[in-house]
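Entry 14. Ran structure prediction on the chain below.
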Amino acid sequence: MTDFINTLRSEFEKNANAGIAAGQKAYMKNQFEYYGIKTPLRRKIQKFFLTKEYLPPKSDLDKIVKTLWSKPQREYQYFAQELAYKYTRQFEKSDVSLFEFMVTHKSWWDTVDFISVKLMGEYFKIYPNQIKKYVKKWIATENMWLQRSAVLFQLNYKAHVDTGLLTFTINSLLGSKEFFINKAIGWMLRSYSKTNSNWVVDFVQKTELENLSRREALRLIQ
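Output, structure tokens:
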């Protein structure tokens, strides 16, 4: 594991660009440090590390992710979540705790949205009996990022969206003044409108959504 991370660090450092890093840091409101590696180059660098032959054993994933999450440069968190996605078919029931950790540490939309949709979304397809338990838990925590995850994990479910659960989740969050919550509600509804626009229109008409959520929800319809 140490060699894996040290080799990754070496590759990131060789491709660092201070000028780009300054712009990236400013864009993220100075919350994180950066090496200054744009996404296409980062993914090119990562490609070798994510090959089947080089992947660490699944049993090391929790420790690797948390080690990478502790590092200041944001590229490590991007890599960590994409590494976790490589183990989708090996997700274990306990992995939801790791995803919660990722969402609640160094939280911002750039990681939370990937974790919600790509990791939690896939996890709940494998363990659907866990859905209601964790959605209710995340809403009750009053952690904005877990609440956003509760809304967004179904983003790519299309015809398999549980509209009853989605209704419960949104209704539970009505009245929130958090931009990232209301934006997520609108985004989720807009996405589902591609599959079932009639349901979305009906839901919007009978629900007292914030203007941001309403506008985003109907963007592809009106």
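The mean pLDDT is 97. Will compare against last week's run tomorrow.
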